[in-house]
Amino acid sequence: MADNFIENIIESDLESGKVKEIITRFPPEPNGYLHIGHAKSLCINFGAKEKYHGKCNLRFDDTNPTKEEVEYVESIKEDIKWLGFEWDNEYYASDYFQTMYECAIKLIKKGLAYVCDLSAEEIKETRGTLTTPGTNSPYRNRTIEENLELFEGMKDGKYPDGSKVLRAKIDMASKNLNMRDPVIYRVLRATHHHTGDKWIIYPMYDFAHPIEDAIEKISHSICTLEFEDHRPLYDWVVENLDFDPLPHQYEFARLNIKNTIMSKRYLKKLVDSNVVTGWDDPRMPTLSGMRKRGYPAEAIKAFCQEVGVAKSNSEVDPQVLEHCVRDYLNDNADRAMVVEKPLKVIIDNFDKDYEEFEVQNNPRKEDSGTHTIKFGKEIYIEQDDFMVNPPPKYHRLVVGGMVRLKGAYILQYVSHVEEDGVVKEVHCNYIEDSAQGGVNAGIKVKGVIQWVNANDCYDCTLNKYDSLLLDEVDGNKEFDDRINPNSLVVVKGAKAEPFLYESKIDTPFQFMRSAYYKLADKKDNQLLCYLIVNLKDSYQAK
Ligand code: ATP
Ligand code: MG
Q1: CA 134, CA 177: separation in Å to the nearest integer?
Q2: One of 167, 231, 264, 522 is an active-site residue; which one?
Q3: Which residues pair with 464 in a beta bridge?
Q4: Has 29 been annotated as catalytic?
Q5: Ligand 1 pocket by C-beta < 6 Å: which residues?
Q6: Is 264 one of the catalytic residues?
Q7: Distance CA 139, CA 160 (A)
Q8: Domains plus CATH for the chain?
Q9: Which atom of ligand 1 is nearest to the CA of 40?
Q10: What per-residue string of b and e applies to 51-78 under the rule 16 or more CB within 10 Å gives b?
Q11: How confident is residue 260, by pLDDT bands cut at 50, 70 and 90?
Q12: Is the pLDDT of residue 541 over 60?
């Protein structure tokens, strides 16, 4: 069953026999790291391949020589693999430069392209407006022979950068501005990351892209809505170059997320100006940032599925993504106990070294296994979980009260030590046989709190992340004015149970009653954890 309008088109093309095999492509420009918006395009293109047993190519759209770097190519491949997608072929648009050059000659020979000496400024001026037609270039009627010679001269470096361009000869009065004799080749002396200095003429995107698709026999060239007005030019190029079969372009709405930067250019600015530590900073909306933060690939794919594929632009709430992350981790992350602001509790009536309890790693997952926790004479609980003057409905430890320790005993308050109004330590008795399965386990206690054993816990630093951007105020959309100064808060001195230290780096956990964190680093008995997402969910799934 088709999930969206693109799949509807694919299914009817397969049914009618118009298309024999589904071939899509993901065509990133290697000028930055992939972000969450790209994930949507990846899910659509690779999703179609998987669902309809077709192919999907990874094609680096590297026709623009000045901005592209090898580092980006490598990061893009890593991110796609991380999402679990496999491309059938790895191509570089620059590998087609020779074919594109021949295509340009073919158009010239057909009288459909000419060399124009107008400057970029003049071309813009003579292009007309949405309401007025453009005017023909004085070079529009050059002969085929003259055009062939001049174009070859452009290729051979006879002319300076920007002095001549090749334009498609279409219609300067077209209602569609993209059809008013668009530039298809320019002279540009720049070293290309793939072809070096071999070429000094480079094709424009609107000419190159349809040729790339046609060469690869792409059946459905899926792109974002801003290319809708370019579709007539896309069709013009492939039709006039007599490709068979003809590729077709389909447009969907790009993913926009509130308060989330989805432009590589601006993300690069954040990196270059050291607002973040790099493209993979855990606060970045890049796939590498999300991976570092601990977002599971599955959650990102579930998010793309949840927002769907639409034909009109809209803005998604970041809560939706967080919901998907939480949803996945709730089922898949092991539970662990960490105390962020420790308060020492001494168990007066406990006189053994320690006792051991077996706890299930993830109560939502049967095969998640168990691990052992030790309970000794001194433990830590959260400072907030004990109050001398509690507000109403405070169901934790209070003077004279009882509280259950998660996975262990019920504690009964005995006394506490206070200095300058600050509680320094609490004394309690444990209630014998009150752990799960014990004869006193049924004692009614409202609160259950997390804790760690003082004797064997590990010191832990928590990197708490928040949105990189603050909300718009008075409609001010400027990113520069909206950088959140508190997007990273480092909390030192937390205490974690040994289970965490024994786990592999990058493992995500639910810190009970706190949030989802991933284990980011461990050394010298110190742990570092990154906040993935908070526990609280305000999003209602469809
Ligand atoms: P940016 O503006 O961030 O540089 P781009 O569109 O120039 O993005 P490309 O590298 O050209 O980035 O994108 C590769 C593919 O990903 C294209 O097909 C593009 O349409 C798609 N894509 C990019 N951004 C989004 C988005 N926000 N939502 C959906 N698809 C996107
Ligand atoms: Mg682009």
Answers
A1: 9
A2: 264
A3: 489
A4: yes
A5: 27-29, 37-38, 40-41, 223-224, 254-255, 262-264
A6: yes
A7: 18
A8: 5-252 (3.40.50.620), 256-332 (1.10.1160.10), 334-534 (2.40.240.10)
A9: 29
A10: ebebbbbbbbbbbbbebbeeebbebbbe
A11: very high
A12: no
- Per-residue pLDDT, averaged over 139-164, amounts to 98
In the chain, the amino acid numbered 258 is K
- Measure CA of the first residue to CA of the last residue in the chain; give whole Å: 19
Binned at pLDDT 50, 70 and 90, residue 70 comes out as: confident
Other CB atoms within 10 Å distance of the CB of residue 445: 18
Active site includes 67? no
How high is the pLDDT of residue 458? Answer: 98
Q: Which residues of 499-510 are buried (b: 16+ CB within 10 A; e: fewer)?
A: bbbebeeeebbb
What would the two tokens of residue 418 be? Answer: 């206070």
Report, as an integer, the average pLDDT of 56-66.
90
Alpha-carbon dihedral 344, 350, 355, 359, rounded to 10 degrees:
-50
Residue from 457, 458, 452, 441 nearest 514 by CA: 452
Pairing state between β 458-465 and 452-453: unpaired
Across the range 279-283, mean pLDDT stands at: 98
* Per-residue confidence band for 368, with pLDDT thresholds at 50, 70 and 90: very high
To test the pocket of ligand 1, the residue of 24, 29, 41, 279 to mutate (highest count of ligand atoms within 8 Å of its CB) is 41
Non-local (6+) Cβ contacts of 244 within 8 A are none
